Amino acid sequence: MLNIVLFGPPGAGKGTQSQNLIQQYNLVHLSTGDILRGEISNGTPLGLEAKKLMDQGLLVPDEVVIGMISNKLDSNKDAKGFIFDGFPRTVAQAEALDQVLASKNDAISAMIALEVNEVELEKRLLIRGKDSGRPDDQNPEIIRKRVQEYTSKTAPVANFYKAQSKFYSVAGIGTIDGIFTAIKAVVEKL
Ligand code: AP5
C-alpha cells in the first residue's frame, strides 16, 4: 500500500496536489476538510458543531476527525493506498492513525510537506475566497488564525514522521506541474 500524508499550512496546495497524486497512482483521497464541509452542507449535527469552529479558523476535536478517518478506511478496503490531506493535524491524530493502520497490517509510507511562506498563503486564500464562498477564506484575521493553529498544533506533527524517517520536504511555490514533478520524485523513491 502507498499511504501518503500530504502536509503543509492552509493554502499550501495540499488539495491541488492530492488531485494529481490520486490520478497518477490510483489512490483514494481522504481530506478531513472536505468531509467536514460535506457534513456542513448536509446539515448534520456533527457538521453544525464543526462549522462553529471552522468559521473561526480553529481545529475540530481530535476524536471527531479520527472517527471520520477510521470509517473511511473501513469503507475503502480495496484501495491501493490513500492520500491523507489535512490529516493528521495534531500529534494525537498521528498516533491514532498509526494505530488504526497497524490494526490493518498497514502503515504510512511517507509524509510530504509543502513549504510555502505566510505572505503567499494569505494571498492564495484571499484570492480563492472571492470565488469559493469558503467562510474561512474571506477574512485575513481568520486566515491568520488558521496559520496560528497550524504553527502551534500541526507543525509538530512533522517531528512525529521525522522520528520514523518518513519526512520529505518539497518547495510549494512555483507552477503546479513543477511542484508535482518534485512530489513524484519523492514518491518514486519510496
Ligand atoms: P482544510 O479543508 O484541510 O483546509 P486547509 O488546511 O486550511 O487547507 P486548504 O484547503 O485551504 O489549502 P490546501 O493546502 O489544500 O491548498 P489548495 O490546494 O486548496 O481544513 C479546513 C478546516 O477544517 C480547518 O481549519 C479545521 O477547522 C477543520 N479541519 C480539517 N481537518 C482537520 C483535522 N484533521 N483536525 C481538526 N480540524 C480539521 O490551494 C489553495 C489555493 O491556492 C487554491 O486556490 C489553489 O488553486 C491555489 N494554489 C495551489 N497551488 C498553487 C501554486 N503552486 N501556485 C499558486 N496557487 C496555487
UniProtKB/TrEMBL annotation:
Subunit structure, interactors included: Monomer.
Family per similarity comment: Belongs to the adenylate kinase family.
Keywords noted in UniProt: ATP-binding, Cytoplasm, Kinase, Nucleotide biosynthesis, Nucleotide-binding, Transferase
Any Pfam family: ADK
Residues where ATP binds: G11, A12, G13, K14, G15, T16, R128, G174
Pathway in which the depicted protein is active: Purine metabolism; AMP biosynthesis via salvage pathway; AMP from ADP: step 1/1
GO molecular function term, any single one: AMP kinase activity
Subcellular location: Cytoplasm
Reaction(s) the record says it catalyses: AMP + ATP = 2 ADP
Entry protein name: Adenylate kinase
Residues binding AMP, per UniProt: T32, R37, L58, L59, V60, G86, F87, P88, R89, Q93, R134, R146
Enzyme class: transferase
Chief location bin: cytoplasm
Record's function text: Catalyzes the reversible transfer of the terminal phosphate group between ATP and AMP. Plays an important role in cellular energy homeostasis and in adenine nucleotide metabolism.
InterPro entries the UniProt entry points to: Adenylat/UMP-CMP_kin, Adenylat_kinase_CS, P-loop_NTPase
Chain segments carrying region NMP: 31-60
Domain characteristics, as noted in the entry: Consists of three domains, a large central CORE domain and two small peripheral domains, NMPbind and LID, which undergo movements during catalysis. The LID domain closes over the site of phosphoryl transfer upon ATP binding. Assembling and dissambling the active center during each catalytic cycle provides an effective means to prevent ATP hydrolysis.
Taxonomic source organism: Pedobacter alpinus
Gene name tied to this protein: adk
EC number: 2.7.4.3
